[in-house]
Automatic annotation (TrEMBL):
Transmembrane segments: none annotated. ATP binds at G23, V24, A25, G26, S27, G28, K29, T30. This is DNA 3'-5' helicase. Residues 2-313 form the UvrD-like helicase ATP-binding domain. Keywords: ATP-binding, Autocatalytic cleavage, DNA damage, DNA repair, Helicase, Hydrolase, Isomerase, Nucleotide-binding, SOS response. Pfam families: HSDR_N_2, Peptidase_S24, UvrD-helicase, UvrD_C. One of its GO terms (molecular function) is ATP binding. One of its GO terms (biological process) is recombinational repair. It comes from Hathewaya proteolytica DSM 3090. SUPFAM superfamilies: LexA/Signal peptidase, P-loop containing nucleoside triphosphate hydrolases.
Length: 817
């Protein structure tokens, strides 16, 4: 378990009462919490009655955290000396609810109560409906009592009142109630304080309690109240150190219960770990203006922030943040932590839309087969959805294709070694991670789920948006988002620059382009047609993702098909020895209307024009690409200068050692003569005077450095630029972390192999098995890897956490000014 400098600082900090770690998804909050236990165990368990308690939110996490704790404890025993030894029996890891249930049982025994837990939701709803019918006679002026459509509101509101431990009507009448409205003819209003509406709601709760008591039932909220009453009279076991994971999800009554477990002394501690952007439960107390101080823990000057997401790739992190930054209620919260980007490059998330769940699951099955061919295991893959019913249908589809599956029920432990695709609700995967995540059925009215009549729609949508964010940030390597039928509005809220249409091509997801920004306006018959929206998006993709110039395109290209004529929506042309000829035909259909009819039309057009090399058909959701043999292929080639009439290509070469730059002109960067201009006359360099530099998309960890399958090609540059014994190669830059040094995504950086560096050198380093380009800065015993982009945080590491691959000595730029 590799720990960074920030995490180690928090792990080794001296206990000082209560404190808070606020962190983004994937920042290592739970890693810090788990690794702090051995430190406390070995250094701050001074008395026989001292113990450490770690509380998790649900059972799903328990086995995982216990597994990580065993690893952390072994590392500590192997590599650290301790003051008091390491007695594992002094540590308890459990859920908050399991402790609450333990105290509830003590309460019932002490008070000689024989109670049953009300777990039948239908019976619970009957009790509440009977209560409403009883109470509405006394409150004829309260409209919410008059409609049966408000049943779900009363269920939720009663649970919330109890979770807040409001036992007297005065408490409920005067509390700040956010997220609820009373809808009348004048529009939505908040549930007003000291109102008849609140009195009616509280009275319904009292009658509900009467109905339960008569039949010998208690609900889960009653269990918490009884447990709190019991722990206030007698605490069975206090803990010197308490660590609370996912504390943003706890209710007020749970937080008050925890406070009574604390054995405060000079070296004791309570550590809360939280991320308000992941607060997805309606009864959670912290947030929306409520702080830890309201339950006795004033965090002024006691908060630490972990803002760097180490779990997900830069691309997944960007997509996830673009979703929640749409919501001011989330990002304006005082406890919100904005994620800082780390340069961990990967694939952009994939979004695909389908007409049915069957089509959606067939696509997922094919992707799983492809992933397994890339050496992913089944247990590297998790399929998540909003509800369990969706998962049951999806699992059945995969089982028919003989894919091993494991449906994880809520609050059940997971066997992480079982080689099967896991199925989990988004709620149950919280706190876990998976190399590959498929977020399925992200449909309209599924997420965000339809709000009940009494919900504040904005507050409800914020909770649902956070839930989607939680699901997206579980993926460490690959994220797929799929829908069937009408997609969720959240799909459109993700910045389309961070979503691809599939894993095999470079087309980004559909985005609306304003009519004012349309291209070829003089060629358009109907500016406001549904098909034109898709065509304009596709034109922008050809320009931005594939570098085709607008002058290579024309709209409504006429094709003679035997005795009739047709018109191709977009024709991309190229120049050959025979002149300008069609290169790509594109058919655009109405958004989400399907592509099969368009594919047949496209094949007909291509059959009638043998010059055309590629065809594309899309409805903005799906895309099909074919070659001149009418076979489906993955992608089209990007634009190259030899497609234009003047085939001479120019590149800019920046010599970092001598702070000079040259313009290189050639017909090909492969083995042919080049012309070099350093501000004066062109100088022709013959092929015999050139040196081949291999290009790598990435550099694998370990030795040898060069891994054959990663070689993209070769570039030939003047031999005189490099020492004869200097081992040099090129890497293709991914991402925008070095734009301040004029190194952009798609540029090629020349690396001179070296295992040492000086302050200020731009180096390629191997960090956690990934190659990254950064400025090297030594600070005492640690090293800073600095990006040349203020959006990215510096990476602070110990010297043994990285290996230097080489120094950057040159940059080759195809696109330059």
């Amino acid at each position: 378990m590799q720990l960074n400098v920030e995490q180690r600082k928090l792990i080794y900090g001296k206990p000082a009462g209560h404190s808070l770690i606020k962190g983004v998804a994937g920042s290592g909050k739970t890693t810090v919490a788990i690794n702090r236990i051995p430190y406390l165990l070995g250094n701050y368990i001074c008395q026989d009655n001292d113990k450490v308690l770690m509380l998790t939110y649900n059972k799903t996490l328990n086995k995982y955290i216990e597994y990580l704790f065993d690893m952390a404890l072994k590392q500590w025993e192997d590599g650290n000396s301790t003051v008091f030894g390491m007695d594992k029996n002094k540590v308890k890891i459990c859920t908050v609810d399991s402790l609450i249930y333990e105290y509830y049982k003590r309460f019932t025994v002490k008070n000689k109560l024989n109670l049953n837990v009300l777990s039948d939701n239908k019976l619970k709803q009957k009790y509440i409906l009977d209560s409403i019918n009883l109470v509405k006679k006394s409150f004829p002026q309260v409209k919410i009592l008059q409609s049966s459509n408000n049943l779900s509101f009363f269920v939720d509101e009663i649970e919330w009142i109890k979770a807040c431990n409001y036992r007297e009507i005065e408490e409920y009448q005067n509390c700040q109630r956010k997220g609820r409205t009373s809808r009348n003819n004048d529009g939505p209003q908040k549930l007003l304080k000291n109102s008849d509406v609140r009195e009616a709601i509280f009275t319904v709760m009292q009658r509900y309690q009467d109905f339960m008591a008569k039949d010998g039932f208690v609900d889960f909220q009653d269990i918490s109240q009884m447990a709190l009453d019991e722990i206030k009279t007698e605490v069975k076991q206090k803990y010197t150190h308490i660590i609370v994971d996912e504390s943003q999800d706890l209710s007020r009554i749970q937080l008050e219960f925890i406070s009574h477990l604390y054995n405060e002394n000079d070296y004791s501690s309570v550590l809360f770990v939280a991320d308000n952007a992941q607060s997805i439960y309606p009864n959670s107390w912290i947030g929306s203006g409520r702080s830890f101080a309201s339950v006795g823990f004033d965090m002024t000057g006691k908060s630490n922030v972990l803002a760097k997401n180490y779990r997900t790739t830069t691309q997944i992190s960007q997509a996830a943040y673009s979703l929640i930054e749409q919501d001011r209620d989330i990002i304006d919260d005082e406890d919100f932590v904005k994620p800082s980007l780390l340069d961990k490059q990967g694939m952009y998330p994939i979004y695909s839309g389908f007409s049915s769940l069957g089509e959606e699951m067939q696509y997922i099955f094919k992707e799983i087969k492809s992933l397994c061919a890339e050496n992913y295991n089944y247990n590297d893959i998790t399929i998540i959805a909003r509800t369990k019913n969706i998962l049951l249908e999806a699992e059945a589809c995969l089982k028919t294709n003989n894919v091993p599956t494991h449906l994880i029920a809520n609050n059940k432990e997971i066997d992480f070694k079982e080689n099967a695709v896991r199925f989990q609700t988004i709620h149950s995967i919280k706190g876990l991670e998976s190399k590959v995540v498929f977020a399925i059925c992200i449909n309209n009215k599924v997420i965000p789920m339809k709000a009940c009549a009494m919900d504040d729609e904005q507050a409800h949508e914020s909770k649902e948006r956070k839930l989607m964010y939680v699901g997206m940030t579980r993926a460490t390597d690959r994220l797929y988002i799929t829908s069937n039928g009408e997609p969720s509005k959240f799909i459109w809220d993700i910045n389309p620059d961070y979503l691809k249409m599939n894993s095999k091509c470079n087309f980004k997801c559909f985005r609306n382009i304003s009519v004012e920004d349309y291209m070829f306006k003089d060629k358009i018959n109907d500016m406001y047609s549904a098909e034109e929206k898709v065509r304009q998006w596709l034109v922008a993709q050809l320009v931005n993702s594939y570098n085709f110039p607008l002058e290579s395109m024309e709209l409504e290209y006429k094709v003679n098909c035997f005795s009739s004529q047709g018109y191709v929506d977009i024709c991309v042309n190229k120049h050959t020895s025979s002149g300008r000829v069609p290169y790509i035909f594109v058919e655009c259909k109405k958004l989400a209307s399907g592509v099969e009819d368009g594919l047949r039309q496209l094949k007909s057009y291509m059959s009638c024009d043998k010059n055309c090399s590629y065809g594309i058909v899309t409805d903005g959701f799906s895309i099909r690409i074919i070659n001149n043999e009418l076979q489906l292929i993955d992608d089209i080639p990007p634009f190259t200068n030899d497609m234009m009439q003047n085939s001479l290509t120019s590149y800019k070469y920046v010599d970092l050692k001598h702070k000079k730059h040259f313009i290189i002109s050639t017909e090909s960067m492969e083995y042919s003569s080049v012309f070099v201009n350093d501000g004066g006359l062109d100088c022709e360099i013959e092929p015999s005077e050139l040196r081949a530099l291999k290009i790598f998309n990435d550099i694998a960890a370990g030795q040898p450095i060069y891994i054959n399958e990663n070689v993209e090609g070769e570039v030939f540059l003047p031999s005189s630029w490099y020492n004869i014994n200097e081992m040099v190669f090129m890497i293709k830059v991914k991402g925008d972390s070095m734009t301040g040094a004029d190194i952009n995504s798609g540029d090629y950086v020349v690396i001179s192999q070296s295992n040492t560096a000086e302050n200020g050198d731009m180096v390629a380093v191997n960090l956690d098995g990934n190659a990254t380009l950064k400025k090297f800065m030594r600070m005492g015993n640690s090293i800073l890897l600095v990006s040349e982009n203020p959006s990215y945080e510096p990476i602070q590491v110990n010297e043994n956490q990285i290996s230097i691959i080489g120094k950057a000595i040159g940059i080759l730029k195809k696109n330059f000014k």
